[in-house]
Amino acid sequence: MASNAALVETGEVAVNSKWRVLFASLIGTTIEFFDFYIFATAAVLVFPKLFFPAGDPTSAQLQSFATFAVAFFARPVGSAVFGHFGDRVGRKATLVAALLTMGVSTVIIGLLPTYAAIGVAAPLLLVLCRFGQGLGLGGEWGGAVLLATENAPPGKRAWYGMFPQLGAPIGFVCSAGIFLVLTATMNDAQFFAWGWRVPFLLSSLLVLVGLYVRLRLNETPAFLRAIEQNERVAVPIGAVLSRHALILVIATFVCLATFVLFYLMTVFSLSWGTGPLAYPRGQFLIMQILAMLAFAVAIPLSAVIADKRGRRAMLIVATIAILAFGLLFGPMFVKDQPMLVLVFLALGLFLMGLTYGPLGTAMAELFPTAVRYTGASLAFNLAGILGASLAPYFATSLARDYGIAAVGWYLAGAALLTLLALLAIRPGQVHD
User: Fold this and answer.
1) Can you give 270-314 as a three-state secondary structure string?
2) Domain count of the fold of the chain
3) Which structural domain, as residue segments, surrounds residue 21?
C-alpha cells in the first residue's frame, strides 16, 4: 500500500469502502470497551478479594475502585501520545498501535499472580496493566471517531460517528455476558481460582480480528488533504493548549455528564446492587445486559436526530433529561424490587445513548483537522478523569454516608455543568 506522502504527491487517494470504515470503527471500539469493562466488572467482583489484603470488605472495594480509576488518569497521556502521531503520521497506523497497547495490557492482567502468591507486588502489577489499558483507550476512541466522521458523506456525519459509539454497549454486553456464563457454569471456588481470567485471555482473539480489519484500511481523505495543504503542526498538543485552550475546556465539560452517568449505571450500580441491595450477582448482570439494549437503541436514534437538528441541540435535550433523571435514584434504585431497578437501569442507559450517540461527532467538529485527533481525544479523556475515574468511589461514599438519593444529586450537578458548557458553544467554534 502506498504511503501517505506518495498518495498526496500522485493525487491517487484510495477510497475506503463504506462498510469497511464502519466495521473497522465499530470492531475496534468494541474490543477496547470489552477490555475496559471486563476490568470494571472484575474490580467489583474479583479484585477486592484476590489482589488486596484481607480486612474490611468496604476498604478493599474502595481500593479496587482506586485501581479502576488509574486508567482514566492514563487516558489523557494516551491522548497526547497517540494524538501526536495521529495528527502527524496518520489515523490508521495510530489506531493499530492503540489497539495493540490495550490488548497486550488486558491479556497480561489475565496472567497475573494474586496477592496470596506474591504479596504487594500483585496490586502494583495490576495498576501498571491498568495504566496500559488507559493509555491504549486514550488513543483509540478519538481515532475511531475520526476514521468514521472523516470518511462520512455530507449530511451523514453523526450517523457515521455513532458507529464507534456502538462499541460501548456491544463491548459491555459481551463482557457482562461472559461473566454471567462463568457465574452460571462454575462455583465460586472455580471462578476465583481461574475462571475470572478467561475474559482477559479471550481478548487476544478479538484483538487479532481488529488488527486484521484495520491493517486493510486506507488513510482518511481529511488527513490526506491536511498533508497536501501543509496544515500539520509540529507539536499538536502544544497547538491545542496554546490556540484552542478555551474550546478544550468547554469540550471537556460537554462530556462530563456522559461519563458520570455511564459509570453510575454500570460500575457503581453493580457494586451497590450486589452489595447493600443484596441482588444476586447473576440476576443483576442480566438486568444490566437488558438495560444495555436500551443504550444500544438510543445511540442510532440520537444520531439520526443530530444529523437533522444539529449535534448541539440533541445534546442539550439529552442533558436536561439526565439532570431530571438524577432525582429518580432515591425512589427507584431500591431493595427487593428487581423490575423497578430494571426500569431504572434501562431509563438511565437510554439517556446515556441519547447523549453518547452524537458526542463523538460533536467533539471532532470542535477542532480543526490538524489537531483534531489530539484535541477531541484529550477533551474526551480529561472528562473521563473528572466524570468517571472516581465516580464509583464518590458514589459509594455518598450512598453510604448520605443515602442513595445523594448519588442522584451528584449526577444532576454534573449534568448542570455539561448543560452550561453546551450553551457556551458558538457557531464559529464548529469546524467541517
Assistant:
1) HHHHHCCCCCCHHHHHHHHHHHHHHHHHHHHHHHHHHHHHCHHHH
2) 1
3) 15-429
